[in-house]
Amino acid sequence: MKKNLEVLDTNIIVRFLTNDNEEQVKVIENLFRSSKPKTLYIPDLVIAEIIYVLQSYYEIPKKDVIAKMNTLVEYDKFFLDSSLIRKSLEIFNLYNISFVDAYLLALMKQKDIKKIHTFDKNVLKISNPKPEI
User: Fold this and answer.
1) Cα dist. 1→5, 6, 37, 43, 83 in Å?
2) What's the pLDDT tens digit per position in 81-125?
3) Is residue 77 classed as helix, strand or coil in its secondary structure?
4) Could you report how far apart the first and last alpha carbons of the chain are, in Å?
5) What are the C-alpha distances in Å from 31 to residues 36, 60, 87?
6) How far apart are alpha carbons 25 and 18 in whole angstroms?
């Protein structure tokens, strides 16, 4: 992992994406402007929580959440597993499954994992045999 990273919590990104508190958004914008490229770390777990909060609390439609997250992944200030998150978003967009399930399927593809153990019938249909995703 890179040195000199600063981790971002879910509420920072959610506040920025929803723009529902002007004062906090100004602070966040200043942070983003003053940060060097690839220094603001967004852990995968935070990505999952952002998506959950945007869909459940803010009731933002899935397609709009995916669009916001794809834009987020491309922002040069952020350090994150962009290829895994992009693939997760792609799967999330294609199927009626949670983002976490889409993430697990993308992880399977990335790490060449052959099987997932789950009781989720939708995930089993997609993954076993291993999907061409």
Assistant:
1) 9, 12, 15, 12, 16
2) 999 999 999 999 999 999 999 999 999 999 999 999 999 998 998
3) coil
4) 28
5) 10, 25, 28
6) 9
- % of residues, the chain, pLDDT over 70: 95
24 class by beta-carbon count within 10 Å (0-12 exposed, 13-18 middle, 19+ buried): middle
Amino acid present at 20: D
Measured distance CA(113)–CA(96) in Å, rounded: 22
Three-state SS at 113: coil
* Nearest one of 90, 75, 82 to 43, comparing CA atoms: 82
pTM of the model: 0.90
Say how far apart CA 63 and CA 26 lie, in whole Å: 26
Mean pLDDT value across the chain? 94
Residue given tokens 């959950």 in the structure block:
52
